[in-house]
Write a structure and sequence with these properties.
Order of helices and strands: HHHHEHHEEEEHHHEHEHEEEEEEEE
Helix content: 25-40%
Radius of gyration: 33 Å
CATH topology of one domain: hypothetical protein PF0899 fold
CATH class of one domain: Alpha Beta
CATH architecture of one domain: 2-Layer Sandwich
Number of helices: 11
Shape: elongated
Structural class: alpha+beta
């Protein structure tokens, strides 16, 4: 209907021009060749618009004839011969709108105007309605907040750190500073007319500043040329999985720079908590030593008044398999709850972002015990996407590949966030872990 109204307005303008042209010629004057040509051009354009309007009106008539009756209001009786459709509307699958935006902008070769036309042709007329298509640069665009929020919500359960349920705080300006209590008040007993000692708190600070997380996802152009929900799911799932892997890599063991977050592993570095919460595996481990080491990690949290029952374990697949297979002298499994993702009544998160090749012998790993209630994750802005069909990239094996020769489109996704601890003793780490199945 919007197109039909536009054509009607244009036709009215042409008729106005025709009338103005006729009025400019006196009754006793002859039309010049130029005036006749102008009138003929206006008539030809009017005939063209009339034909387009006729076609659109015919489509509207056909649509009206094929329209299904509207569903009756709750409690209303449907007309005779009409069956009420009581099936609930199928909920929209999160993240597919984001994937369609990615696929459409890639299919358009980064041209935003062409992407908008493709979306219109595919029936996605509102796909880019919530963003300024003219404001992006270098083939990129910002995903609208409502769509970006869907992707971030999908990302959180996939990422080990965010799946634990940390405190998510917005950073609209890209930075946030909050106090954390280092020591509590000191109280003491005294006699009558004796001075009470001054009491008070001492504080530290948690400073979060937005760090840029980026990842590159190669997508086959054969897929991008195919408009289907299955392709949208694949694009969405690849984006979420790749972003989760990179995020965990830095949130867990990032050393901390001006451009990357300091992960949980190194939050204690250079603080008094490092001596009490960064522990070493007991040498020559046996069943009792393994159990004792896990207990030492729990005790580190408990001694700092952190509720141990709310903590989560984070470990590598090798360590998890060792604990799953560990048996006592009678052949019974020591930790049978590992089969259901629990260890000593606390959830277990398994990730390859905890390496197994640390230490001098390149055979050591680490275990973390973290209370998510004391972990702060600050998030800034939405998601920024950029695309290229020609840029080179490194694959998972570190080999340089060419998107052009492989007929691929590279999608680069950028988010900004940071991580910190409100209470430093809320994380303990066991280092030098050589536990492995068969040892």
């Amino acid at each position: 209907m919007d197109k039909l109204l536009e054509l009607q307005a244009r036709r009215a303008g042409i008729i106005d021009q025709m009338e103005a042209l006729a009025a400019s010629i006196g009754s006793d004057e002859d039309w010049t060749d130029e005036q006749v040509a102008t009138l003929d051009g206006l008539k030809a354009e009017d005939d063209k618009l009339a034909a387009q309007m006729s076609a659109l009106e015919d489509i509207e008539r056909r649509r009206a004839a094929a329209a299904r009756p509207a569903a009756p209001l709750p409690g209303a009786t449907p007309p005779a011969g009409v069956t009420a459709d009581t099936a609930p509307a199928k909920p929209k699958e999160p993240g597919l709108t984001f994937a369609r935006m990615v696929r459409t902008i890639a299919a358009a070769g980064g041209n935003h105007y062409v992407a908008q036309q493709i979306a219109e042709a595919n029936g996605d007329s509102g796909l880019f309605a919530n963003q300024n298509m003219g404001g992006a640069t270098a083939g990129g665009f910002l995903v609208p907040e409502d769509v970006g929020g869907e992707v971030i919500e999908l990302l959180r359960p996939v990422s080990v750190v965010t799946s634990m349920g940390p405190r998510i705080v917005p950073m609209p300006n890209g930075n946030m500073t909050t106090n954390r209590r280092a020591t509590g008040a000191t109280f003491g007993y005294g006699g009558e007319q004796q001075d009470a000692k001054a009491t008070g708190y001492s504080y530290g600070q948690v400073k979060l500043s937005a760090k840029k997380l980026s990842g590159i996802i190669p997508i086959s152009n054969d897929l991008l040329r195919t408009a289907s929900t299955a392709v949208d799911r694949m694009v969405r799932d690849d984006a979420v999985a790749d972003a989760a892997q990179i995020q965990d890599r830095h949130f867990l063991r990032g050393s901390g720079t001006d451009y990357a977050p300091k992960g949980l592993r190194f939050q204690h570095k250079g603080t008094p908590v490092e001596k009490t919460h960064v522990l070493s595996m007991t040498a020559a481990p046996d069943l009792q030593k393994v159990d004792n080491d896990l207990g030492r990690m729990e005790l580190a949290l408990a001694n700092a008044n952190v509720v141990v029952t709310g903590a989560h374990w984070i470990m590598s697949p090798r360590t998890a398999m060792f604990l799953t297979n560990l048996r006592d002298g009678n052949g019974n499994k020591v930790y049978p709850e590992m089969a259901s993702g629990q260890l000593r009544m606390k959830p277990v998160h398994i990730t390859t972002e905890i390496p197994d090749n640390l230490g001098a012998g390149s055979d050591e790993s680490e275990i973390m015990l973290a209370h998510p209630g004391h972990i702060l994750v600050g998030e800034h802005m939405g998601i920024e996407i950029a695309m290229s069909t020609e840029a080179p990239y490194k694959d998972a094996e570190g080999q340089m590949q060419s998107a052009f020769s492989r007929d691929e489109t590279l999608m680069r996704m950028i988010m900004q966030h940071d991580i910190g601890l409100r209470h430093l003793p809320a994380v303990s780490i066991l280092t030098g872990v050589t536990w492995a199945p068969g040892t």
